[in-house]
Amino acid sequence: MCTSQQPDSQREDSLNCVAPTTLQKVLDECQNQRACHLLVNSRVFGPDLCPGSSKYLLVSFKCQPNELKNKTVCEDQELKLHCHESKLLNIYSATYGRRMQERDVCSSEAERLPPFDCLSYSALQVLSRRCYGKQRCKVLVNNYH
Questions:
Q1: Alpha-carbon gap, residue 67 to 30, rounded angstroms
Q2: Is 138 helix (H, G, I), strand (E, B) or coil?
Q3: Do the Cβ atoms of 6 and 12 come closer than 8 Å?
């Protein structure tokens, strides 16, 4: 990916050139920050373990909030979703209907449940359209909506 500053004949690709301070440096500069900028050079990450070889920084990260919440609301009730201040809704999955293995969810004893899954796969599209990017969202849970 990164071009070498040395001719191919002088490079030793088998060397392990990983700065031991990398993780701590990235954590110190970036953890819990909304944005993060790091200069990628040996002055920032410690002594140059492989002089003359080009280096790169590979960072794996996840933006917060990384808390995934689930909410179940029975038919003819209102689903109310809300996020804390400065956070917005992002719907990852949604199903409407009934799963065969979830017999105890929103059912009465007199009700005869079907022996198969009965799901509407448009629920994700409906909720995303109505709630995505908002801080609060209300949806009446029924066949119409």
A1: 19
A2: strand
A3: no
Nearest partner of 122 among 102, 139, 104, 105, judged by Cα: 139
Rounded Cα–Cα distance for residues 31 and 61 (Å): 10
Report how far apart, in Å, the C-alpha atoms of 120 and of each of 27, 98, 99 are: 43, 9, 11
Question: Model confidence at 137, in pLDDT bands (50, 70, 90)?
Answer: very high
Residue identified by tokens 């790091």 is 38
Q: Rg of the Cα trace of the chain?
A: 26
Do 10 and 52 contact (CB within 8 A), yes or no? yes
- Helix and strand totals (H; E) in the chain: 3, 4
pLDDT tens digits for range 51-94: 877 778 888 776 666 667 888 888 889 999 988 777 888 888 88
The whole-number pLDDT of residue 81 equals 92
